[in-house]
Amino acid sequence: MFESAEIGHAIDKETYEAEVPALREALLEAQFELKQQARFPVIVLINGIEGAGKGETVKLLNEWMDPRLIEVRTFDQQSDEELARPPAWRYWRALPAKGRMGIFFGNWYSQMLQGRVHGEFKDAVLDQAISGAERLELMLCDEGALIFKFWFHLSKKQMKARLKALKDDPLHSWRISPLDWQQSETYDRFVRFGERVLRRTSRDYAPWHVIEGVDPHYRSLAVGKILLEGLQAALKSTGPAERQTNIAPLGHSIDGLSLLGSLDLSKRLEKKDYEEQLITEQARLAGLLRDKQMRRHALVAVFEGNDAAGKGGAIRRVAAALDPRQYRIVPIAAPTEDERAQPYLWRFWRHIPVRGKFTVFDRSWYGRVLVERVEGFCSQADWMRAYGEINDFEEQLRNAGVVVVKFWLSIDKDTQLERFQEREQIPFKRFKITEEDWRNRDKWEVYAEAVGDMVDRTSTEIAPWTLIEANDKRWARVKVLRTLNEALEAAFAKHKK
Amino acid sequence: MFESAEIGHAIDKETYEAEVPALREALLEAQFELKQQARFPVIVLINGIEGAGKGETVKLLNEWMDPRLIEVRTFDQQSDEELARPPAWRYWRALPAKGRMGIFFGNWYSQMLQGRVHGEFKDAVLDQAISGAERLELMLCDEGALIFKFWFHLSKKQMKARLKALKDDPLHSWRISPLDWQQSETYDRFVRFGERVLRRTSRDYAPWHVIEGVDPHYRSLAVGKILLEGLQAALKSTGPAERQTNIAPLGHSIDGLSLLGSLDLSKRLEKKDYEEQLITEQARLAGLLRDKQMRRHALVAVFEGNDAAGKGGAIRRVAAALDPRQYRIVPIAAPTEDERAQPYLWRFWRHIPVRGKFTVFDRSWYGRVLVERVEGFCSQADWMRAYGEINDFEEQLRNAGVVVVKFWLSIDKDTQLERFQEREQIPFKRFKITEEDWRNRDKWEVYAEAVGDMVDRTSTEIAPWTLIEANDKRWARVKVLRTLNEALEAAFAKHKK
């Protein structure tokens, strides 16, 4: 969930200064239009890691936009007035009116996270708070509100460096954080529970935007652009005042950097190393699947990737290690008639393995946010809600002991071209290449954006994505096997504790 | 929540036999149309009290409709197959396809309730299960499903009698309930937690229908008609396959009986008794509000009722007892400009008292499901979701120690006419009667239905409605005061324990 916000996003000063004037003007214009229409309020939630630029961004937004139409609310210590009333009262009294924008700095999410990080309560109570937040936000959206949720992120290393730098800064020191961020464990817990909160509350009507906070130019432009695009879309919508559809772009890269792009596709294995490691990992997998700990687990592996990235070959190397009674490979193509008559997740639920078994999905439920999104086979509303539905689905698997491992096999465009041409030339491979593959290739960038959003929104602690550098098939196959083994070992170790 | 299902609903045999043929024919027709369109599946959830006719109703539906298009699923003990997979798998495998109907007899609600009643877990875990059910149902609705949720209810007395009668019935004895219903405490706990579950999961997209289960004719016709109307509405809707709006009627009375109608409006107090009791109750209220226990509570009283039912007079009798610094009366009329620029609950949140204080709402947030519904000031979708939003709101108040007491002052049509005429004749009362009052009077039945739905859907353990027989003003005023006192004493007693 936070991977894309740890890759060093940055915008150079020149670009920044060139872009800001137009952005400011457009934001002011949108703000004015918002006021004129007075059809809906805008609520901006600011959360995230200490030192990631939350305060600075709020300050900047106030400079950029017309501060008379923005209310910035900081919810730190509760006042006597607030303490004497139900907890939500402080948020209700601060709600912006239609036509106005409210920036909530420190909000319901801060409170639930602080409580959980401090150990004041456990996950079940955190989940109650999460459910309360969902109800509140759904109601606000149903009443017309447009909600932006920003999570400012830093890697632990980045945070430590920032805190050191900020220590002596008088502009910062006024803000007393209720958490002791100097402690490494605070960061770990905050990120762990933060992930749970984001996973659950990133819903189509109010999605989270995770912003890497290191570079001020980047984070400012990123936030400004998301606000602008979301505002413009909502101002244009002609539907009833009720239920704006927040269609702010999801993880649209503004600096050309992306998680996929940050992969080192030159990684490779020599034949000798490959053969050695392959056999080792295969034997390890076979052993793990026979381990008596498997009795309380099942294994699900999801293979997605560029066309010709080598999914089939990798799956065969996995299968080669195993007793055929232990695993099943489920290839996902167009849904059957029976499957089309059901909710889209039904065709995958059918194939969930019993404890002790292993199912390989050759393409998967992620088709919803990949091919169906890109090709327009479902509406935007459908694929927007799918991220949350898929996270719910995988959480259910995980809670039942199913280990979920998800692979994206990534190759570059040149490698794909080579492999396509090779397939066309070699008779027994010709069936593997179709017109459709060439058409998909034309949409390379659109698919790349969909993949980026998918990983950002569904790579979770309970079911993380593993990106596989697949230009070299050997490297890819060994990494797939090793990742499976590590995931199983980690699951087994948890139970041993 | 269950009050309307304890008033002895019944349909005589003659009426029943006269109505059934047409109902069956219409149901079969709707079923056929459902199959032809094959646009969405229908999911019917059957829950409720043991002995309230769940099994019999399912059997009957199967007889009435084409059983080839219905799948009845009983989820009792989990099979080995099911135990080896995530808990939701058993429901997914049983989902009806588009064009078909699935009756889930024993479902996710049964499981969470049994667990909670048995004390296997506490409220926080029950709430996690509730939230899971909400997510599942929202997703199913977003994917097009039409969901009916029936809760078959019996009062405790009725249940005991039914269980006794059923004991020797071989048609019933096959069904082994996992709960020991012979125990009075089982009933109490089941109803208490059932209320929590219904309150939380009765959402606009999948509302609950509570059916009184004593009389087989009544419960069969009630279920059949709700199914029919809901089906017909969904089949007619021309929107996209996604997100059917379930507009099955809410609590539409089919036997002429209603909770309001069951009030004994002839109740009255003699002048002497009135004066004595009034003073006693006023003194008691004054004392309770000065009690040091009030430091952790606040009191909110909601007054709704027929026009000319005597809300103002009753409120004055409450206020008369108190120090003006302790209470506030908030009269609710048309919203101000500021209030129209906010979600509808905002204008009430503003006036929530601090601990130790008392706020009287002369009309309230229930305007959403009364005047706004009847006069069409908001859309059906808006008032349908309001029941859940209001329950959430009141739960937040209650959790913060606010005691919420809600009054419906009920008079009959003749009494209203008398009072209207009196108001027109007495100069200082003339300002109290307007054209609008006469117009509302013409909509007596429509308002009565809205009031019935309101009470059914928002009379909860945390904030119950008290229906006040108000033909006699003396009776009404004393009952209002006594109810307030009893509510405060109950809240204080809870803390003392």
> What's the structural domain tally of chain A?
2
Name the CATH superfamily assignment of the largest domain in chain A: P-loop containing nucleotide triphosphate hydrolases
Strand percentage of chain A: 5-15%
Helix content of chain A: 40-55%
Chain-wise SSE layout:
The structure is a homodimer of 497-residue chains.
Chain A: H1 13-37, E1 42-48, H2 54-64, E2 70-74, H3 80-83, H4 89-92, E3 101-105, H5 108-117, H6 123-142, E4 146-153, H7 156-166, H8 170-173, H9 184-201, E5 208-212, H10 216-236, H11 271-290, E6 298-305, H12 311-320, E7 327-331, H13 337-340, H14 346-349, E8 358-362, H15 371-374, H16 380-399, E9 402-410, H17 413-425, H18 435-442, H19 444-458, E10 465-469, H20 473-496
Parallel strand pairs in A: 1-3, 1-4, 2-3, 4-5, 6-8, 6-9, 7-8, 9-10
In short:
The structure is a homodimer of 497-residue chains. Chain A is built from 20 helices and ten strands.
Question: What features would you describe in this structure?
Answer:
Chains A, B: Residues 11-236, 269-493 form the Polyphosphate kinase-2-related domain. Chains A, B: Pfam families: PPK2. Chains A, B: This is Polyphosphate:AMP phosphotransferase. Chain A is α/β, with parallel strands linked by helices and 497 residues long. The radius of gyration of chain A is 24 Å and the shape is globular. In chain A, helix 1 (13-37) packs parallel to helix 10 and helix 2 (54-64) packs across helix 10 (216-236). A five-stranded parallel beta sheet of chain A has the order 2-3-1-4-5, with helices on both faces. The two termini of chain A are 26 Å apart. Chain A has 20 helices and ten strands. The model of chain A has no long low-confidence stretch (mean pLDDT 89). The first copy, chain A, has two domains: 3-236, 3-Layer(aba) Sandwich (Rossmann fold), CATH 3.40.50; 271-496, P-loop containing nucleotide triphosphate hydrolases (Rossmann fold). In chain A, 50% of the residues lie in helices and 12% in strands. The interface between A and B is large, with 58 and 59 residues.
